[in-house]
Amino acid sequence: MKKVKTVYDHIRSNNLKTILLVALFPIIFIVLVFLFSWIVIPASDALQVALGVAIPTAAACLIWSGISWAFGDSMILSVAGAHEIHDTDPANREIFRSVENVALAAGLPTPRVYIIDDDSMNAFATGRSPRDASVALTRGIIKRLNRLELEGVIAHEMSHIGNRDIRLDMFLITGVGVTVFAADVLLRVIASGGARSNNDDNKSAGAVLLMVWLAFMVFNFIITPLLRMAISRNREYAADATGAQITRNPHALASALRKITTDARVECLDKVKAMSAMCIANPRGPREFIGDLLATHPPVEKRIARLESMQKQ
């Protein structure tokens, strides 16, 4: 008889997959730079080039991540047009209490609660750490889900906070920004004449620069989207499982997902591609031409099937 996976099995499996996928970023980057450089210079020199490019790139990613970490959450909430609510507001007291109760069940500090004035159904979490996190809910998701379904959604977002997914996503976003900027700098150096010279040494240096730029391009526009979307999908599965664990009601979250995916588009986020992975469902509307490999979220049918297969703990 086939063993039924529990909540803990799903969480453990998805966490291991995420660790492996994150580890692939630097490994693939170094391998790409090495292989492209090896086309024009010996292997030993190509390895030095790969390490010489990887170390400053990693340092720049860390520095830029720190800057984004300090200001990113307020920028995200501003882009979404979210406004904060408090338990002192009679109209929103019940929503605030629901978030407070789920946070207590999750063993996390109560996050700040924001409302997005949009009639669609979506939600996301942001913040540097559980102590200064925020949960944003659209007006539509509050009106159109019942209490148990809404608590399932809140638990899903609290799971992202507890699992430190926000920190991971911020690092990935800024890391991609740094490598795209580095590729642009290299292209400008090459275009300025770095690759055109009668001197053999300069010609060799120019050829290496061109190969490194090509490695950046392959990494930025082929490898990174595939890995980042795979990580995003795994974190959604993990948040679903953890959310089910918090509420002890996977069926409520499954029911919420059925409703949310019928109207998840948030108009103010249509042009903010980086925020797609942060929401419980893609807020940019359906993209039929995008395959599963480039999707920010797993197919809703698979998410619901996993939730409904979970045993209550």
Order of helices and strands: HHEHEEEHHHHHH
Shape: elongated
- Classify the secondary structure makeup into a structural class: mainly alpha
What is the straight-line distance between the termini? 20 Å
Low-confidence stretches: none
Q: What does the average pLDDT come to?
A: 85
CA radius of gyration: 22 Å
Portion of residues in beta strands equals 5-15%
Number of separate helices: 9
Strand order of the largest sheet: 1-2-4-3
Largest sheet: 4 strands, mixed
Percent of residues in helices comes to 55-70%
Strand elements, count? 4
In short:
This protein has 313 residues and is mainly alpha-helical. The protein has nine helices and four strands.
Report on this model:
The chain is elongated, with a radius of gyration of 22 Å. The model has no long low-confidence stretch (mean pLDDT 85). Helix 1 packs antiparallel against helix 7 (200-247), helix 2 packs across helix 6 (165-194) and helix 8 packs antiparallel against helix 9 (300-309). Strand 3 (123-126) and strand 4 (134-138) form a beta hairpin. The protein starts with 6 loop residues before the first helix and ends with a helix. It is mostly helical and 313 residues long. The chain has helices spanning 7-38, 43-79, 93-106, 139-144, 147-162, 165-194, 200-247, 250-260, 300-309, and strands at 82-85, 112-116, 123-126, 134-138. It has a 4-stranded mixed sheet, sandwiched between helices.
Tag the structure with descriptive keywords.
65% helix; 4 strands; mainly alpha; four-stranded mixed sheet; single chain; 313 residues
